[in-house]
Design a protein that fits this description.
Elements (H helix, E strand, L loop, with lengths): L2 H21 L3 H6 L9 E6 L5 H4 E6 L8 E10 L2 H8 L10 E2 L5 E7 L11 E4 L10 E5 L3 E4 L5 H6 L3 H11 L8 E4 L5 H12 L3 E6 L5 H11 L3 E4 L20 E4 L3 H10 L5 E4 L12 H5 L4 E4 L2 H5 L4 H16 L7 E5 L3 H8 L8 E5 L1
Parallel strand pairs: 9-10, 9-12, 10-11, 12-13, 13-14, 15-16
Antiparallel strand pairs: 1-2, 1-4, 3-5, 3-7, 3-16, 5-6, 6-8
Helix pairs in contact: 6-7
Length: 372
């Protein structure tokens, strides 16, 4: 065999290994699959080692894989680049697939083919992986029927692709920690994030007021107006809160019993200052990479509680049915225009551009959503 032929075989073997890793197939089963129902070839964003996403990811052509009896082959329509996707590639996220791996964790696709024992799904259906499942940054995904949740095709593509991680986080935090009633209030930092925007809108639907903290930076006035348009009651930059008594800024709003923190550092301290006695702050992120500092007074005299929320942990509790019911509820809100957030659709072949934007290389950008 020529050197060129040997190299070609090595490349094919490498590509097959990527598919085996993602689909859990044995080599013998993969060889047999060439006589059975097969998926189309796929293009995927893969990484063979952990590191900076712009250095370790690359586009790979993958061979067809077998569509087994209980499998569904999905042609992906769109998938976002989330901060947690970046953290998985960097190797710092607590739960991550073994390398080599295909990136992506949520998205929406159209059923392309089904196995002989699949009854609930048909070609043409729109589906999302629910709970989320790794490997959505590829043109065709083959996974068991149980992974996929059929959704209403009337929902806008960009919301269907992004509904599971951020909006679901907002909904769960609103419902899991403090029982709030109409007329109550909450406070949050990171209000311009998608989770923050969803908190504002979901709270408003429940008659709950929101006090929102944003960072001091260019465009903060525009950000404030955008949040107000979503239903935010109060929006403060961090510098505006450099006062002795932040509660004097509340006006007619009641002191909040619940606070959300995704930043850490000083922004977390500001959330704590707003909370009423016996209030609870829930931390779900740490964008500043700075620790949370809590005064002794907050614990002794205000009796504040500090808790954490991680969607992955909640999903691991066997809540598939509940998760899908909430996703349908959120998708209904998005379809009816009651839940909005900004995204930017980027063609798959421009993935490096979208990745640079998601990494913050070109300033603040909307959520990047890859379209296939």
């Amino acid at each position: 065999m020529t050197a060129v032929g040997v190299r070609a075989l090595k490349l094919l073997s490498s590509a097959v290994n990527y598919r085996l890793n993602q689909c859990g197939e044995t080599p013998i089963r993969c060889l047999r699959s060439f006589s059975t129902v097969m998926s189309p070839p796929s293009k995927a964003i893969v990484y063979e080692q952990h590191g900076s996403p712009d250095s370790v990811t690359r586009l790979v052509n993958l061979p067809p894989v077998e569509v087994r009896d209980n499998d569904v082959c999905v042609k992906m329509i769109a998938a976002p680049i989330n901060p947690s996707d970046i953290n998985r590639i960097e190797g710092v996220y607590p739960v991550r697939p073994p390398v080599p791996a295909i990136g992506g964790y949520e998205g929406v696709g159209e059923v392309y083919a089904v196995g002989s024992k699949v009854n609930a799904l048909s070609p043409g259906d729109w589906v999302i992986p629910s709970p989320p499942s790794s490997g959505t940054w590829q043109t065709f995904v083959v996974k068991e029927e149980s992974v996929w949740h059929k959704i209403d095709k009337s929902c806008p593509m960009e919301y269907a692709a992004t509904i599971t991680v951020n909006p679901l986080t907002a909904l769960r935090m609103l419902e899991d920690f403090v029982s709030l009633a109409s007329g109550d209030s909450l406070v949050q930092n990171g209000a311009t994030s998608i989770v923050g925007q969803c908190v504002i809108q979901l709270a408003r639907l429940r008659g709950i007021s929101t006090i929102n903290i944003i960072r001091d930076r260019a465009g903060s006035d525009e950000a404030r107006e955008n949040l107000k348009a979503l239903g935010a009651d109060q929006v403060f930059s961090e510098s505006q809160l450099n006062v002795k008594n932040v509660k004097s800024l509340l006006g007619e709003l009641p002191e909040p019993a619940l606070g959300f923190n995704c930043v850490g550092g000083n922004a977390a301290s500001l959330v704590l200052k707003f909370l009423r006695e016996g209030g609870t702050m829930v931390t779900y992120g740490g964008m500043s990479k700075k620790p949370i500092t809590v005064s002794t007074t907050s614990f002794i005299f205000k009796d504040l509680e500090l808790k954490g929320f991680w969607l992955q942990n909640w999903l691991s509790l066997g809540k598939v049915k509940e998760c899908r019911e909430m996703i349908d509820y959120l998708l209904g809100l998005a379809r009816d225009g009651k839940l909005k957030y900004e995204t930017e659709l980027v063609p798959f072949d421009e993935f490096p551009v979208a990745l640079d934007k998601a990494l913050g290389k070109v300033g603040r950008q909307p959520k990047q959503v890859i379209t296939f």
